[in-house]
Amino acid sequence: EIVLTQSPGTLSLSPGERATLSCRASQSIDSNYLGWYQQKRGQAPRLLIFGASTRATGIPDRFSGSGSGTDFTLTINRLEPEDFVVYYCLHYRDSPFAYTFGQGTKVEI
Amino acid sequence: QVQLQQSGPGLVKPSQTLSLTCAISGDSVSSDSVAWNWVRQSPSRGLEWLGRTYYRSRWYTDYAVFVKSRITIYADTSKNQFSLQLQSVSPEDTAVYYCTRDRPSFPWFLAYWGQGSLVTVSS
Q: Which of B74, B66, B18 is nearest to A100 (CA)?
C-alpha cells in the first residue's frame, strides 16, 4: 500500500507570499492518480488539482501542481487570506481500488 | 449542479450499526459514469476512504481493507440515494462521515461532497 507523506506539517507565511507544499509517495506512482484538496474549517474538502497538475473547475490560477514519480508539489502563488487553511494530497489505485490521503499541511499566517 | 445531502443519527452505541444515507440531486445514483463513495475524518486517523458503489450494467462495490469485514454500501434507486452501514462500531469509529461522488471521467477524484455528519460512538 502506498503511503503519502506531506511536509511540512505547518507552513507559516504572510499574505502575498508563495506557499510550496510537498507530498511524497512511498513508491513511484502514475501522476494521473495524484490530486490535491483544500479544506476550510468546518467544511468538506474541495478538489483543487487532479492528475498532479490539472486545476479543477473554478480553481484560481494561483494554485498549481507539479511533480512525478514519488515527489509532488502544490504551489500557491500570492497567498490570499482565504488560502490559510489545510491541504491534503490524495492518491488512488485501480486494482484493487482504493483512495489514500496524506496527513495534511496547514498553511497559517 | 450535483448536491449530496446526508442524514442519519449522530450518536451510536458501541457494538451497534452506524447507518447514514446520502440523498442525491442533480444526478442519478444509477449513472454509469461515476461512483458514489463514503469518506470519514477524525483527528486521530485523518481522512480515510471507506468504500464506494457504482453501476455498470450491474452494481459493484469496493471497500477499504481495514473495514471490509463490517461495511456495506448500497444504492436505493427508487429514492436516488446511497447508504453506508458500518457494523460492530467502537469509539475509534467516531468521526465526521462524508458521502462523495467522483469526477465523471478519468482520472477519478472525489469531486462532490456532502455536508458531513458527525457520528459519535458512545454508550
A: B66
Backbone angles phi, psi at B6, to 5 degrees: -90, 150
Residue B107 has pLDDT above 90, yes or no: no
Rg of chain A on CA atoms, in Å? 13
Q: What is the pLDDT of residues B48-95, one digit of tens each?
A: 999 999 999 999 999 999 999 999 999 999 999 999 999 999 999 999
Residue A22 and residue B118: Cα distance in Å, rounded? 29
Q: What residues 52-111 of chain B have any CB closer than 8 A to a CB of chain A? A: 52, 62, 64-65, 98, 100, 103, 106-111
HSE-CB at B103 with a 13 A cutoff on CA atoms is: 18
How many residue pairs from chains A and B have C-beta atoms closer than 8 A? Answer: 52
The answer to whether residues A62 and A16 touch, using CB atoms and an 8 Å cutoff, is no
Of A50, A103, A104, the CB nearest to B109: A50
